[in-house]
Design goal:
The complex is a heterodimer of chains A (about 230) and B (about 260). With about 230 residues, chain A is α+β, with helices and mostly antiparallel strands. Chain A is built from 4 helices and 13 strands. The mean pLDDT of chain A is about 90. Chain B is of the alpha+beta class. Chain B contains 6 helices and 10 strands; from the N terminus they run αββββααββββααββα.
């Protein structure tokens, strides 16, 4: 294996990532890992890849950290103005359309794979996938990032419509944990955000809270603690 | 009748000493002299009606339309200078389709009205532009239900239950005020609007006219469309009958 080139210190921050969003009976749950890398160095092992756009709409970010942060900032700004003008909260569809517009019109400059999900009173919980080229596609569930490759089969088999909140959260955490197990660019903790008519709830799963799979060793006693 | 501007009315960028912009008021005159346009908001939708005066027998029936579709869920009826009205409608259409393209949703009617009003007002701010010589009545149906707005040449826009512009607007407004709009469906509204337009049409001063009716309501699936031919005929017949009855009564009184 070739030695690590010095480039890892100056490489752009990328979110190897596994991101996921699913519809459940009352709304949506967004989930993500927490590893941000510059080359092979883990720049942030506890990053938050789920960002707020409005009170009722959130976005999962994968790809270039800088690109997705800037896109999120622009969309948050537009949505804020839009909400004021409209006199009521923006819909998930509108938020997704704005993200798509930026992603598509600037496709040659951006490396951003995003998932917009949230709840509004017209369409209930909605998930919109916006991959690299700037396509916009509404789906019952959507995954993204390097770790998502390992999830396609599992998601197709295991997802069911109208899951309860607990079922859906377990489903999301299990999926991200599976991806973390196989994808070197994904890791750290699993963060989830649940959005429904009642509001927003953030959750955090680390270490022994994550399920174990084939040949994985349980965390056991922490050797640093006497 | 009209007040003389005497020097303060030469440019739209000049105020008079009593704070008026005469050019805008003169633009409104153009609207006041055109055929009557009526709009009402019923409980399940909006009805627009136009007294389209026909200046010549050579005009093909159905040409020179005064009611225009702006978007699936919205339509506009124009009074005043026809060409000016066409520009306003074009702008409204453009705003509606751009909004859909950018936000992924149909433009809320209030927002559409806002955009059109802003544009009309814009054209009253520059000395090298003249104000639009037309007013438009905008009717639409969105998530907040059916709505009716009117945009005047000054750029001012209000939301209405019932609105009328043009020659017969005074009489039309009086007639609209008598209607119980909150209990009326659009089917009934069509008959009411037709009756009003026939009523305010001045047989002596203007010769022929064509009635244009459109609606956007639950029955039309919340889409703006011209009133179906059979309902239109029904409305015309009822309105004509009512007008004839009224004329007869007046004739008898005179005797």
């Amino acid at each position: 294996m070739e030695p690590m080139a010095g480039g890892w210190m100056s490489a752009a921050h990328s979110m190897g990532t596994t991101i996921l969003a699913v519809e459940y009976d009352e709304g949506v749950i967004l989930g993500a890992d927490s590893r941000t890398t510059t080359g092979v160095y883990v720049a942030n092992r506890a990053s938050d890849k789920i960002t707020q756009l409005t009170d009722n709409v959130y976005i999962c970010r994968s790809g270039s950290a800088a690109d997705t942060q800037v896109v999120s900032d622009y969309v948050r700004y537009f949505l804020n103005q839009h909400t004021i003008q409209l006199g009521k909260e923006a819909t998930v569809k509108t938020a997704a359309n704005l993200v798509k517009e930026l992603a598509y019109q600037n496709k040659s400059f951006l490396q951003a794979g995003m998932i917009v999900a949230g709840w509004d009173k017209y369409d209930g919980g909605s998930v919109y996938g916006i991959p690299l080229g700037g396509t916009l596609l509404r789906l019952p569930f959507s995954s993204g990032g390097s770790g998502s490759s390992y999830l396609y089969g599992f998601l197709d088999q295991a997802w069911r419509p109208n899951m309860s909140k607990d079922e859906a959260e377990r489903f999301v955490v299990k999926s991200i944990a599976l991806a973390i197990a196989r994808d070197g660019a994904s890791g750290g903790v699993v963060r989830t955000v649940t959005v429904n008519a009642h509001g927003v709830e953030r959750n955090f799963f680390a270490g022994d809270k994550l399920p174990l799979f084939h040949e994985e060793i349980s965390p056991g006693r922490n050797p640093l603690l006497a | 009748m009209s007040s003389i501007g005497t020097g303060y009315d030469l440019s739209v960028t000049t105020f008079s000493p009593d704070g008026r912009v005469f050019q805008i008021e003169y633009a409104t005159k153009a609207v006041d002299n055109s055929g009557t346009v009526v709009g009402i908001k019923c409980k399940d939708g909006v009805v627009l009606g136009v007294e389209k005066l026909i200046p010549s027998k050579m005009l093909l029936e159905g040409s020179n339309r005064r009611i225009h579709a702006v978007h699936k869920h919205a339509g506009m009826a124009v009074a005043g200078l026809a060409a000016d009205g066409r520009q306003i409608v074009a702008r409204a259409r453009s705003e509606a389709s751009q909004y859909l393209s950018f936000y992924g949703e149909d433009i809320p009617i209030k927002e559409l009205c806002d955009r059109v009003a802003r544009y009309v007002h814009l054209c009253t701010l520059y000395w090298w532009l003249r104000p639009f010589g037309s007013a438009t009545i905008l009717g639409g149906y969105d998530r907040d239900g059916p709505q009716l707005y009117m945009i005047e040449p000054s750029g001012v826009a209000y939301r209405y239950f019932g609105a009328a512009i043009g020659k017969g607007r005074q009489a039309a407004k009086t007639a609209i005020e008598k209607l119980k709009l909150s209990e009326m469906t659009c089917r009934e509204g069509i008959l009411a609007v037709a009756k009003i337009i026939y009523e305010v049409h001045d047989e002596a001063k203007d010769k022929a006219f064509e009635l244009e009716l459109s609606w956007v309501c639950d029955e039309s699936n919340k889409q703006h469309q011209r009133v179906p031919a059979d309902l239109l005929e029904e409305a015309k017949a009822a309105a004509k009958a009512a007008k004839d009855a009224l004329d007869e009564d007046e004739g008898m009184d005179a005797d």
